[in-house]
Amino acid sequence: MTSLVYIAFQDNDSARYIVEAIAQDNPNAVIQHQPAMIRVQAEGRLEIHRATVEEKLGREWDVQEMLIDVITLGGNVEEDEDCFALHWN
């Protein structure tokens, strides 16, 4: 069984900033640009930090905003106001 977690976003301006933040915080993440979609995957765990996304966007950001741009994801979800994480146990 694979332990890859993944999340795919619509390829739009706001999602590109989120993907930049993911890449900064998860150096092991693999980013695949596909037609109209950006897929991010990592072995074991992937974290999206509110502070890093805010830095990229240049404004306050609520983790829940991300869900507007999400197409699909794979992994167990841990979410609070500062972080959205995917992992397998």
TrEMBL record:
**Alphabetical list of InterPro entries matching this protein:** MOase_MmoB_DmpM, mOase_MmoB_DmpM_sf
Q: Which GO terms describe its molecular function?
A: monooxygenase activity
Pfam families, sorted? MmoB_DmpM (PF02406)
Domain of life (superkingdom): Bacteria
Family recorded in the similarity comment: Belongs to the TmoD/XamoD family.
Q: What is the protein's name according to its record?
A: Phenol hydroxylase P2 protein
